[in-house]
Amino acid sequence: MAEGMAxxxxxxxxxxxxxxxxxxxxVGINLTDATYRGYYRHSKPVHPDDLAQVLDRAASAGVRKxxxxxxxxxxxxxAIELAKLxxxxxxxxxxxxxxxxxxxxxxxxxxxxxLAQIKELAERGKADxxxxxxxxxxxxxxxxxxxxxxxxxxxxxxxxxxxxx
Length: 165
Known about the structure:
Layout: H1 3-7, E1 24-29, H2 51-60, E2 63-68, H3 73-85, E3 90-94, H4 102-106, H5 111-128, E4 131-134, H6 149-164
Parallel strand pairs: 1-2, 2-3, 3-4
């Protein structure tokens, strides 16, 4: 835990002081990122998989629930798998991040086919109790080098239509 946080009165149970009875939820955690499995932009692992230890440390600090972010179809599937591995602790979102919205334009079968897959995954995950939100989608005009504003707006609107259904 960062030293600055302890100075603000937020201390972990590991430090011998409980979080004063507070429970927390992380509502946008990217646990599908390879760094939790030991990979940092390399093809070989830098350290052993420590996802379980990350979750344990968070729980000892009072974080009881995690909403694991799906940023594209594959990460959404991975988020659901984590929700299955850690039931009652991890839940998933399903969607395509605006920086990845070009995946709709490049999808085999077209963007509407990819959207149908996202929708089906979200519906199945919701029925199973693993998916709690539709996301991570939106608009990110600060990083237009990843995806144009027009493409982001198009697929934001279409994902929003699906989420509202």
